[in-house]
Design brief:
Order of helices and strands: HEHHHEEHEEEEEHEEEEHHHEEEEEEEHH
Number of strands: 19
Radius of gyration: 21 Å
Number of helices: 11
Number of domains: 2
Keywords: Membrane, Transmembrane, Transmembrane helix
Strand content: 25-35%
Largest sheet: 8 strands, antiparallel
Shape: globular
Distance between the termini: 34 Å
Structural class: alpha+beta
Length: about 425
């Protein structure tokens, strides 16, 4: 089964109310923190998963990692509408009572004057031990063209890595966008406005503007809008999505969402497995491992993952590394060998997969006898979605192999 399908299955298993609409988009954006660990074993067959598994998670689910809410119980007609994110490391809201009709009504009441159609939503519900997340979406027309708008409610550990990822602007080395700004509101809520594109490689010019709010009590409000009548498959109908940045902020900050989620159970505090190194320690060691001739022009990290964009004067190059415990059963790809100490090594050079013209992807994937996986990749561009900036990555395969096999990753914490 293709990786995108496997990941779609893993994501679907977290809640009946979420329906993946683009499995490659899920790969690009929704995989982070605890959700990343959930799908890790099923995703492990991907060669060079250093970027596939974690890099794009640094800014939350930004690179079009959008998952549509269920349309079940909608008060309106069927059809495509805006979709919103399935929150990473979050809990579908237990002890919440709201219907699909109420969610749709609340969303429409917060919009400026205009016409709505294709009204869809889902209330908070429970089937067995699974909970449905409240959500609503509409196609909105203010006289300047149709645009889809959607919103979803959930809960999240407000002090956890997942929450921070949702309200931290991503590096442009990971995904391309026009504008992103984050702030702390007077009530202590953290807010971020992201203005980018449905496809980071811009193979279509559909704009995706997204507003996310995390309250001190762990309520997660996430809204997205598009300058088309649907997230995908619809022609662009206006220059920008319908709501301004200020209106998106007002939408997710509305008191009605906090009231709706007042009784919701908030997830327990997140914890990183003791065997998984922290993002900060990985960042430090990755930079220290790079050849001295390379200048680091950008960098980022999260638990188990770190990346750096380097430049030796010949163009930018993205380098990233994952460290994953308990991965002894993963099959390696490319040219596979086994070292005298039992470490398995897979080496592969392949074209990039994100659409950047001329991009190549070099990967060294290693698994120790203690089942620790260290996989490092390098690209001949500073952003996989952008064209190549040099003929080959800034690091050779031998240099990548040397970094991956360094024993320091075994003891890093």
């Amino acid at each position: 089964m293709p990786f995108e399908d496997q990941l779609g299955d893993a994501m679907r298993s977290t809640g009946d109310g979420f329906v993946p609409e683009d499995r490659r988009a899920l790969l690009d954006g929704a995989l982070m923190s605890g959700r990343r660990r959930l799908a890790r074993r099923r995703a492990a067959t991907v060669t060079g998963s250093v970027v596939a598994l974690a890099a794009v998670g640094l800014g939350g689910a930004w690179a079009s990692g959008l998952v549509g809410g269920s349309s079940g119980g909608s008060g309106g007609s069927g059809g495509p509408a805006a979709s919103v994110a399935a929150p990473p490391k979050s809990t579908l809201p237990e002890r919440v009572s709201v219907t699909a009709e109420q969610m749709i009504k609340n969303l429409i009441s917060l919009l400026p004057p205009g016409k709505t159609s294709v009204e869809r939503g889902s209330g908070a519900g429970q089937t067995g031990d699974k909970f449905t997340s409240p959500s609503a979406s509409v196609v909105f027309d203010d006289g300047k063209g149709k645009g889809s708008i959607g919103i979803s409610l959930s809960t999240i550990d407000p002090a956890g890595e997942g929450a921070t990822g949702y309200v931290t602007c991503p590096s442009k080395a990971i995904t391309d966008y026009d504008h992103c700004a984050a702030e702390v509101l007077p009530d202590g809520s953290r807010f971020m406005l992201f203005q980018g594109y449905e496809y980071p490689d811009r193979r279509e010019e559909t704009k995706n503007w997204r507003a996310t709010l995390v309250t001190p009590k762990g309520v997660l409000v996430d809204a997205s809008e598009y300058n088309a009548a649907a997230e995908k498959g619809a022609k662009i109908s206006r220059v920008d999505p319908p709501l301004t940045g200020a209106q998106m902020k007002a939408l997710v900050s509305a008191e009605v969402w906090k009231t709706t989620m007042a009784g919701a159970k908030v997830p327990r505090s997140e914890s990183v497995p003791r065997s998984e190194p922290s993002g900060a320690s990985m960042q430090r060691e990755l930079v220290a491992s790079l050849p001295k001739a390379l200048k680091v022009v950008d960098q980022g990290n999260q638990g188990g993952y770190a990346f750096a964009v380097v430049d030796d004067g010949k163009g930018k190059s993205l380098v990233g590394i994952n460290v994953q415990p308990g991965m002894g059963d993963v099959p390696l790809q490319g040219a596979v060998s086994t070292l005298p100490n039992g470490t398995r090594v897979g080496e592969e050079q392949r074209p990039g997969e994100k659409g950047g013209a001329g991009v190549v992807w070099w990967t060294v994937d290693t698994i120790r006898k203690n089942d620790l996986r260290v996989v490092i990749s390098a690209f001949n561009t500073g952003n996989q979605n952008a064209p190549a900036t040099r003929a080959t990555p800034a690091l050779t395969m031998a240099q990548l192999k040397g970094i991956a096999l360094d024993p320091k990753w075994d003891t890093l914490s």
